[in-house]
Prior knowledge:
The protein is an alpha+beta fold. It has helices spanning 2-21, 40-53, 64-69, 86-95, 124-130, 137-154, and strands at 31-36, 57-63, 78-84, 105-111, 117-122.
Amino acid sequence: MKKYILSSLLLVALAAPAHATDAPEKPVEALISTQSALSVEETANKLEAMMKEKGLTVFARINHAENAAGVDLDLRPTELIIFGNPKVGTPLMQCSQAIAIDLPQKMLVWQDEEGKAWLSYNNPDALQERHNVEGCDETFAKVKTVLGGLSAAVAVE
């Protein structure tokens, strides 16, 4: 009986490291959010101006709180800016045409329950994972740089 118990323990001990290496990776966060030092409106205004200054096309700016008020509903300040540039978006779609469902890019400026303003956008790593894109790391790195740069520059006073 002792041999059986010792053998079982040895098997468990040997199997544990192999099992640990097969552990799933931590999932990629779908959104990247940066707290802004400005109000929602100031952040959205600054973001839109900076996008235009950098040659990005702003397709729409949607004020969800204003739209909610139009049907007698309350919503904290929430604005969505839809923007893009075919020089960046087209290579993404060449990697995976289905990624077009997530384009043009969007940035959400919103206020939390404590009155703090945030700027959020889709994590390019999550988009790459969602669409099972392989071999386009350079293109996604460029998108990450642009979105991260905009977010960091806009969030400060």
